[in-house]
Amino acid sequence: EVQLVESGGGLVQPGRSLKLSCVASGFTFSNYGMNWIRQAPGKGLEWVAYISSGSSYIYYAETVKGRFTISRDNAKNTLYLQMTSLRSEDTALYYCASDYPGIPFAYWGQGTLVTVSS
Amino acid sequence: DVVLTQTPSTLSATIGQSVSISCRSSQSLLDSAGNTYLYWYLQRPGQSPQLLIYLVSNLGSGVPNRFSGSGSGTDFTLKISGVEAEDLGVYYCMQATHAPNTFGAGTKLELK
Question: Which residues are CB-contacts of A33 (< 8 A; sequence separation ≥ 6)?
Fold first, then answer.
């Protein structure tokens, strides 16, 4: 069974940094592209970042480009999102989601909540 | 970015009723290779989203066959033939033909 477990969320002041993690199990993590997707309270879904299986291809939403960094450690089956210069509009539930051939966001974690507030 | 417009925003249904959700794209989702990367996800209350339909009309693993997807170009539809209580939640369409991947705003299915 595919499992994705996010952690690292919390309350952080504007301008500060936070690093999220997502531990994967139940599939061969190193074979699949991975994503971060966020959902602001009471709002819809916004794709944030993508990293290919071998980290060769990395893409970001314009709203986070230059502030967030996606990375992965295939030996540890773990996906990361380093978030810097956080803003109030970054407040959201952050999901990691794995791709599957032909299917973006095939599997989702339960999310970790990031709240940016002074 | 491609804008996906879902209608209605809220849908009230009784158990057993058949309903449809529309997803209209600001650009054609047909790529040069003849593929259409349109997907449907369901987010039940308090849960993370889950895949329902991939590539317009293919059911995800374990998805009941009362769900069906159709459409082409810029107009797509998700149909539920006989709503059940477990179908309540917010439905999102998503496109992956044009980077970045974008979601519709969602359609909330509630009990009448």
Answer: A50, A51, A52, A53, A57, A98, A99
